[in-house]
C-alpha cells in the first residue's frame, strides 16, 4: 500500500465513525456496531502502518496538492506508529468493555460519537507533522473528552468538568500563543522544516524561551508537576470505560508531544532543558505517588498514579541519551496498557463489590480469586516487579539515568516504585484480602448472575493482561523496537528526509 | 505598528489572567474568551503587518507581489472557529453546573473533591452560607 493510504486510514476510520454515529444518533445498536467496526478498522490500519515502518523507514505524505513545507504533512516513524497501534488496541478493548451497561443510560447522548472523536484527535496528534495541525487535533481530542466527562451530568461530573475544561482550555490557548511566536521567528509551521530552520536562527535565547513555553503547554496536557491539578479533580468522576480511555491516551498525547518537540525541534540546548525536565520528573513522580497514598477511593488512587508514572516517561528528555529515549518509549507503551487495565479492573471491583471506596470493599479474593490474579498482573507491573512489563521499562530508564550520572533521578525513580507497590498492596489488602463487609453480598450475587456482562468486562481485561505478560516474558523484541525507535528520534535526518527528500510518497499523492 | 499590537496582546493576556483568577466562574468564561482573542492577535502580529493589499493573485499573473500574509489569517480563522465552539460548550457547562450546584463560586464547588470532614475554616464558611 502507498504511504498516503497507510497514513490516512488510521484517521479515516474514526472520522467515518464520528460521521456515521452522528447520522444514526437515535439508533443505539447501529451506533455500537459502527463504533466497534471503526475501532477494529483503526487497529487493523495501525497494524499495517507499524509493519510498514518496522524496519526503520519513515513514511510521509502531504495533503491537498501542497508539498511540504506549505501543505499539511503526516509523518509516521516507529514511535508514532507504535502509539497509533496502541491507540487501536485500546480503542477495541475499551470499546468492548464499554458495552457493559456503565454508560447505557447516556449512550444516546453521543457517547459513541465522542468516543470516536477522541480516537480521531489522538491518532491525528500522533501522525501529524505540522505544529498548527497538532493544535487542531488537540482541540478535537479535548472537545470530545469534555463531552465524555460531562456525559453523565451528575453534580460531581459538572463540578469536575468546570475544572477540567478551564485548565485545559488555558493550556491549549497557551500552546496556540506559543505556536504563533514560533511562526513569528521562523515563518514556518512544518515540524521537519522547523527542525532545519531553528538551529540556524541567530536568536537562540528566544528559541530556548519557546522550548520552555512548549514544555509548559504540553506539560499541562501530560499532567506534570506543577500543572497536573485538572487530572485528580476530574478523572474519578467519569464512569469506568471513559476514565480508562482517558487514562490510556490523554496524558500520553502530552508526553508524545514533549518527546517529539524536544527531540526534533529543541535538542540544541539540552544542557539547559535537561536539568529542568529532570527536576520536573522527580517532583511529578513524588507528588503523584504521595497523593495516591492519601486516598481510599480506587479511582483516585489510580488517577494520582497516572501523574507519578508520567515522571518516568520524562526520563528520556531529561537524560537525552538513546537508551533513555528508547526507555521512555517502552515506558509509554507499557504504561498505557497497564493503566487502562487497572481502571477496567476498578470497574469490575465496583460491580462485584458495590463500591469504589476501599473502606466499603473486602473479601474479593475469597469470592473471585481469578479477579485477584488479573488485578495483580497490572498492579505489580505498575510497581515494576519482574518479570512483568513494568520491570523492563523501569530498568531501562533507571539504567539510562545512572549511566548519565543523574543519580537523584534514578534514586527517586526507585523510591517511587516502592511507594507504588505500597499503594497497589493497599488496594489488594483492602479490596481483596480483608473480610467481606455485609453490604457486599448483594452486588456479588448480581455480578455472578450476569454472565453476559462478565464476559464483556473480563475479555478485554484478560487480553490486556496477556499483553502485559507478553511484554514481560518476551521483552527482547519490544525493547529492541523501542531502542531503535529512540535512536530514530534522536537522528533527525531520517524524519526530515522523509518529508523533504526525493520521496516517491509525495508524487504518488499528487497524480 | 507591531509594538502597538504587541502591547495590546500583553494587555489582553493580563486582563485574561486577572479574570481567570477570579472565583466567579462567569468571569472565568470571560477570561477564556479574552485569552482566546489574545492568542488570535498574537498569530496576526507574528505574521508581520506589512501590507494592506488583499492576498489575491491578479488575473493573468502567476505570483503575488506585496500582498498581506494570508497564512496567519487562515490560522486565525481556524482558531476562531475552535474557540467559538469551545467557549459555547463552556458556557453551557457552567450554566448547567450553576443550576445543579446552586453556586457560581469556584471555591464552593467541592462536589468532586469533598474536603475531609468540616474541619477547615473554608468549609465551615461554605456550610454557614448554605
TrEMBL record, chain A:
GO molecular function term, any single one:
NADH dehydrogenase (ubiquinone) activity
Where does the signal peptide begin and end? none
Any single Pfam family the record assigns to this protein: Proton_antipo_M
Gene Ontology CC: one annotated term: plasma membrane
- GO BP annotation list: ATP synthesis coupled electron transport
The record's section on InterPro entries has: CPA3_Na-H_Antiporter_D, NADH_UbQ_OxRdtase, ND/Mrp_TM
Location in the cell: Cell membrane; Membrane
Q: Which domain of life is it from?
A: Bacteria
- For the NADH:quinone oxidoreductase/Mrp antiporter transmembrane domain, which residue ranges apply? 130-419
Q: Keywords of this protein's UniProt record, alphabetized?
A: Cell membrane, Membrane, Transmembrane, Transmembrane helix
Similarity-based family: Belongs to the CPA3 antiporters (TC 2.A.63) subunit D family.
Report what the protein is called: Multicomponent Na+:H+ antiporter subunit D
Name its species: Pseudochelatococcus contaminans
Query: Taxonomically, what lineage is the organism?
Result: Bacteria, Pseudomonadati, Pseudomonadota, Alphaproteobacteria, Hyphomicrobiales
Automatic annotation (TrEMBL), chain B:
For this UniProt record, the keywords arranged alphabetically read as follows:
Cell membrane, Membrane, Transmembrane, Transmembrane helix
Q: Its principal location?
A: membrane
> Which locations, inside or outside the cell, does it occupy?
Cell membrane
- Membrane topology qualifier: Multi-pass membrane protein
Which InterPro entries does this entry report, sorted A to Z?
CPA3_antiporter_subunitC, NUOK/Mnh_C1-like
> From which domain of life does this come?
Bacteria
One GO cellular component this record assigns the protein to is: plasma membrane
Offer one Pfam family short name for this entry. Oxidored_q2
The transmembrane segments are 6-21, 28-47, 74-94
Instruction: Return the similarity comment.
Output: Belongs to the CPA3 antiporters (TC 2.A.63) subunit C family.
What is the name of the protein in this document?
Multicomponent Na+:H+ antiporter subunit C
Species for this entry: Pseudochelatococcus contaminans
Amino acid at each position: 500500500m502507498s504511504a498516503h493510504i497507510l497514513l490516512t486510514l488510521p484517521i479515516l476510520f474514526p472520522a467515518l465513525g464520528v460521521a456515521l454515529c452522528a447520522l444514526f444518533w437515535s439508533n443505539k445498536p447501529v451506533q455500537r456496531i459502527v463504533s466497534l467496526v471503526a475501532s477494529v478498522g483503526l487497529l487493523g490500519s495501525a497494524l499495517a502502518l507499524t509493519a510498514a515502518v518496522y524496519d526503520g523507514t519513515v513514511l510521509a505524505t502531504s495533503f491537498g496538492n501542497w508539498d511540504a513545507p506549505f501543505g499539511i504533512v503526516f509523518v509516521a516513524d516507529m514511535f508514532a506508529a507504535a502509539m497509533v497501534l496502541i491507540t487501536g488496541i485500546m480503542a477495541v478493548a475499551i470499546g468492548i468493555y464499554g458495552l457493559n451497561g456503565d454508560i447505557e443510560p447516556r449512550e444516546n447522548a453521543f457517547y459513541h460519537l465522542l468516543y470516536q472523536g477522541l480516537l480521531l484527535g489522538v491518532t491525528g496528534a500522533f501522525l501529524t507533522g505540522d505544529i498548527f495541525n497538532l493544535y487542531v487535533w488537540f482541540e478535537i481530542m479535548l472537545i470530545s473528552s469534555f463531552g465524555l466527562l460531562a456525559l453523565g451530568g451528575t453534580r460531581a461530573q459538572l463540578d469536575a468538568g468546570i475544572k477540567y475544561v478551564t485548565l485545559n482550555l488555558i493550556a491549549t490557548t497557551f500552546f496556540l500563543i506559543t505556536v504563533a511566536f514560533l511562526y513569528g521567528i521562523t515563518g514556518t509551521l512544518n515540524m521537519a522544516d522547523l527542525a532545519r530552520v531553528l538551529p540556524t536562527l541567530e536568536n537562540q535565547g528566544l528559541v530556548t524561551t519557546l522550548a520552555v513555553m512548549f514544555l509548559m503547554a504540553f506539560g499541562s496536557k501530560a499532567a506534570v508537576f506543577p500543572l497536573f491539578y485538572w487530572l485528580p479533580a476530574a478523572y474519578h468522576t467519569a464512569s469506568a470505560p471513559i476514565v480508562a480511555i482517558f487514562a490510556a491516551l490523554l496524558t500520553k498525547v502530552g508526553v508524545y508531544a514533549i518527546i517529539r518537540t524536544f527531540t526534533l525541534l529543541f535538542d540544541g540546548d539540552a544542557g539547559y532543558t535537561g536539568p529542568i525536565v529532570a527536576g520536573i520528573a522527580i517532583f511529578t513522580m513524588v507528588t503523584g505517588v504521595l497523593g495516591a497514598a492519601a486516598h481510599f477511593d480506587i479511582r483516585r488512587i489510580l488517577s494520582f498514579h497516572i501523574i507519578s508514572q508520567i515522571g518516568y516517561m520524562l526520563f528520556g528528555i531529561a537524560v537525552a541519551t538513546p537508551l533513555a529515549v528508547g526507555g521512555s518509549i517502552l515506558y509509554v507503551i507499557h504504561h498505557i496498557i497497564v493503566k487502562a487495565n487497572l481502571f477496567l479492573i476498578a470497574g469490575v471491583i465496583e460491580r462485584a463489590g458495590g463500591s469504589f471506596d476501599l473502606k466499603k470493599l473486602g473479601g474479593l479474593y475469597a469470592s473471585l480469586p481469578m479477579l485477584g490474579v488479573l488485578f495483580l498482573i497490572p498492579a505489580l507491573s505498575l510497581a515494576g516487579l519482574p518479570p512483568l512489563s513494568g520491570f523492563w521499562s523501569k530498568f531501562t530508564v533507571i539504567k539510562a539515568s545512572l549511566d548519565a550520572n543523574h543519580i537523584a533521578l534514578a534514586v527517586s525513580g526507585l523510591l517511587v516504585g516502592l511507594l507504588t507497590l505500597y499503594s497497589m498492596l493497599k488496594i489488594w489488602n483492602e479490596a481483596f484480602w480483608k473480610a467481606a463487609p455485609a453490604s457486599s453480598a448483594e452486588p456479588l450475587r448480581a455480578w455472578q448472575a450476569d454472565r453476559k456482562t462478565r464476559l464483556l468486562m473480563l475479555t478485554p481485561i484478560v487480553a490486556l493482561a496477556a499483553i502485559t505478560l507478553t511484554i514481560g516474558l518476551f521483552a527482547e523484541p519490544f525493547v529492541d523496537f523501542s531502542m531503535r525507535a529512540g535512536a530514530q528520534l534522536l537522528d533527525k535526518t531520517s524524519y526530515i528526509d522523509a518529508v523533504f527528500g526525493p520521496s516517491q510518497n509525495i508524487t504518488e499523492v499528487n497524480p | 505598528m507591531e509594538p502597538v499590537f504587541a502591547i495590546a496582546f500583553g494587555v489582553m493576556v493580563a486582563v485574561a489572567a486577572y479574570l481567570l483568577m477570579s472565583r466567579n466562574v462567569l468571569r472565568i468564561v470571560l477570561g477564556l474568551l479574552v485569552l482566546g482573542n489574545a492568542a488570535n492577535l498574537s498569530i496576526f502580529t507574528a505574521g508581520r503587518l506589512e501590507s494592506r493589499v488583499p492576498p489575491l493573485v491578479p488575473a493573468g499573473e502567476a505570483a503575488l507581489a506585496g500582498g498581506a500574509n494570508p497564512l496567519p489569517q487562515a490560522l486565525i480563522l481556524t482558531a476562531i472557529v475552535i474557540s467559538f465552539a469551545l467557549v459555547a460548550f463552556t458556557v453551557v457547562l457552567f450554566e448547567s453546573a450553576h443550576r445543579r450546584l446552586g453556586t457560581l463560586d469556584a471555591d464552593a464547588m467541592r462536589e468532586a473533591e469533598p474536603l475531609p470532614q468540616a474541619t477547615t475554616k473554608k468549609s465551615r464558611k461554605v456550610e454557614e452560607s448554605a
